[in-house]
Design brief:
The complex is a heterotrimer of chains A (about 250), B (about 300) and C (about 260). With about 300 residues, chain B is of the alpha+beta class. Helix content of chain B is about 25%, strand content about 30%. The longest helix of chain C has about 40 residues. Chain C is of the alpha+beta class and about 260 residues long. The chains are: A alpha+beta (about 250), B alpha+beta (about 300), C alpha+beta (about 260). Chain C: It is found in: Cytoplasm; Nucleus, Nucleolus.
Amino acid sequence: MAGLEQQPLLTDGHRRDGRAYEEFRNVFLNTGVISQASGSAYAEFNNTKVMVGVYGPRQSERKVGYSEQGRISVDVKLATFATRQRGVFGQTPEERELSALLATALEAATNLASFPKATADVYVLVLEAGGAELAVAATAAALALADAGIEMFDLVTACSVSRAEGALLLDPTTDEAAREEAGLTLALMPACSEVTQLVSRGPWSSSQLREALELAMGGCAQLDALARQVLKTAAAEAATRRQQEAQRQAQQA
Amino acid sequence: MASPLISAAEVQWITAGVSFNIRNDGRQREDFRALSVQLGVITQATGSARVQLGETDVIVGVKAEIGSPDPDRPDCGRLVFGVECSPVASPAFRGRGGDELSGELARALERSFYPGPSGRAGGVDLSTLSIVSGKTCWVLYVDALLLNIGGNLHDALSVAAKAALADAKIPKVEVVQGEDPTDEPGYEVDDDPQWFSLYLYEPDYEVDDDPQQAQRLDVSRVPLCVTVSQIGAHSVVDLTAQEELCSSASVQVAVDESGVVCGLTKRRQKGVDPSVALEMVEVAQRSAAKLHAALAESLGGQQAQQMSVG
Amino acid sequence: MEYVSPEGLRLDGRRPKELRQLKAELGVLASADGSAMFEMGNTKVLAAVFGPKPVETRSQEDDKRCLVKCEYAMASFSTGERRRRGKGDRRATEITKAIRNCLEQTILVELMPRSQIDVYVQVLQADGGTRCACINAAFMALAAAAVPMRDILASCAAGYLESTALLDLNYVEDSGGGPDVAVAIHPNFDDRVVLLQQDNRVAIETFEEVLQLAVAGCRAVGEFMRQRLLEHTDALAAAREAGQPQEGAADDNEDALDEDDY
C-alpha cells in the first residue's frame, strides 16, 4: 500500500482503475429492494454500495410540533464494516453532517405540501464506502422516494468531482478523494435544472468552479437517464405482475 | 431551537423591501451590519476574540496544547474545532438543546479550513505547528461559544475564528537533545506558566522567559465564510434572524483574501438554478473582499496597540 | 509553594484581606430580558435572565410562587487546560443547585405565582471563585431584568493558607489544599447568610475568622454592585431624559426603570 501512495493517480489520460477522467464507475441502480419499506432503492458504483429505505409519510412525532409542510427526516448510517477502519456504533458527527446535507438535497425536490403534519423517514445505509458516498446516497434516496410514491417535482441525481494532479475527475474513488486538491458534490434536479445541494472543499478559482460544475451537471444528466430507465422498468414490471394477478384471479373465478 | 414565529405579512414586507434594495434596518442587499472585533477577551487562552455582527455575538477561544499528530500527516499539527451553544443565548439551548446546531456549525468551520492532502492547502500552514515529526505537534483547539443569536451565525463564527487564530501566540519550543543519546528529546518552552505541569518530568526542560519569542500564526490565507441567501429573486448577505425566516435557499461560501473559493455548502429547502448558484458565489466573493478588509483593519489596529503596550 | 510572602503579599500581589478587581457590566446581551457580565480578577462570568414568563411544564406550575430555573455552563476554553465538560456533570449540577437555592431566597417568588424565571450562567474564564462570581452575575442580571428581590445578593469566598486567612482565592490558592469557604449574604438583613459551603477541614476558631472575612468580602462586593446598579439606573434615566435610547442598552432596560420607580 505504501508504494501505491507514492504513485501518481493518473497515467496516459487514465486513472488507476482504467477509467477516463470523465467516466463513471460501473453504475447499478435498482428499486424495490426492501419489501417492508414504502419505497427503497439500492445503488452500487463499484465499491460504493448504498441501500435506502423510505418509510411513510406517517404522522410526525408529537414533540416536533405542527407544520403545514411535510418533513423529511434523513438518517445516514455507515455500516461498521463500510470503511477501511472499523466504524463505531452510534451516530458519528460525520454521519450527522451527511444526514443534514442529504436532507437539503432531497427537500427541494419533494412536494412537501402534499403531506402536511407528516414525516417521511429516509434511512440510508452505506454498506461500503468507496468514494462519493453523499452523491450515491442522494441519487439512491431520490429513487427510493419516487418508489415510495411520494410526490416529487423532479428526480434528484448527484455526482462528485475531484481536482487532483491538475485534472478534473468525475466520480472519484476514496483513494482519489484522499489526494485531491479540491472536490465538490453537486445534487441536481436535472429536468428543471435546479441545484438542490452543492458542497465543496478545498480551493477553487471561479473558472475552475464553473468548469467543475459543468462536468458535474453532465454527470448528473447521465445518471438521470439511467435512473428514469430504472423507474420505468420497475413500473412496467409492476404493471405486468398486476395483470398476471388479475388473470389468475379471473381463471380461479 | 424553537423557530421564532413570523407572519405572512412580515415575510411579504421583508421580501418587497429586498426587491427595492432597502432592508428593514436601512441596509442594501450586499451590506453587512456593523462588525466589532475585540481581541484577547479571554486572557487565559492562547488567543481569543469576541465578534459582534449586529445582534449576533460570539466568542472564540484558541487553546494550544501539545499532542500527537494525525498518523496520516505526521509532519503537521492539528486544528480541532468545537462550537458550544450557551444557554445564555436562548432557553432553547438548555441541556442538550444546542447540540445539533453546534455540530453543524463546527463541521462548517472545519470544512473552510480543509487542509488538503498535503496539510498545506488550508488557511493555516499546519506544518509550522509540527514539533517532532510523527511524535509531537501543537494541537490548536478552536472553541466557539454562541452568546447571542441574531442571524448569520456562520459568518460571525468564521470571522471570530480567524481573529482568535490571529491573536494566538504560540510559545516557541526548542527540541533539546537529551544527555543520554537514547533519551527521548526534551522540550524547551518559552514564557507560558500554564505549560509547567506538562514538562515537569521531561529530562531536558529549560524555560526561556522571553515572551518576545512566542510566534504568531500566519492567518493571512484563512478564508472567511459568507452566506448568500435568496430572498424573493435576489441575493442578500448577512441576514438578520427575521430575514433568515424569509429565505428559501442559501449558499455558504468560504472565500480567502485573493477571492478563491475554499468551501461551499448549500442550505435550506429550495433548489436554485445553476446560474443563480454561480451568481451567489460571485456575490460571496465580492462581499468577502469587503469583510476581509474590515477584519484586517480591525486586527491591524488592535495588534499595533498591543505592540505599543508590550 | 509560598502563598504569602514575608512581606505579607500574596502570589498576585494582593494583601490577605484584599479582593481582586471587580468589574460589572449590565445589559450585555440583546435577546435576554436582563443580562450581566461579572468579573472578579480573571474569573469572568456572563449571566442571562429570561422571564418572568408562563411556566413551560404545566406539572411544575405552582400557584403560590414562581419557579426559578437555573443552568450553569463552562466554556471549554475557560479553564487553564482545555477540557470539554458535559453540560450535566456533577460539579455543574451541584453549582446549579447552589445558585438556584440562593436565588430562590432572594427573589420575591410569592409576587409572581404561576410563572417561571430562567437564569443561565456561563463561565467564560475560570480562575477560582466561579460559584461566587456566578451568584453575583445572576443577581445583577436579575436586577437588570427588573425582577423584584428582597435584597442585594452578594457572594464571596475566603480561605486559610499558611496560618493566614485569605479573601477571594484565585485558582492557584484554591488548589493549595486549604479550606475554601464560599458565602453569600443579604447585606441589608444583618448579613443574613444565604449560602455557606466549605471544602476541607478547618479548626472551629479558624473557621470563624475565615467566615467573618468572607462576610466582610461579601459586604464589599454588595456595596460595589449597589454602586454599579445606581450608575446604571442614572445612565438610563439620563438617556430617557435626552429622549434617545442609550447606546448598548436594550429597550427592555427602560421597562426596568419603570419597575424601579414604583
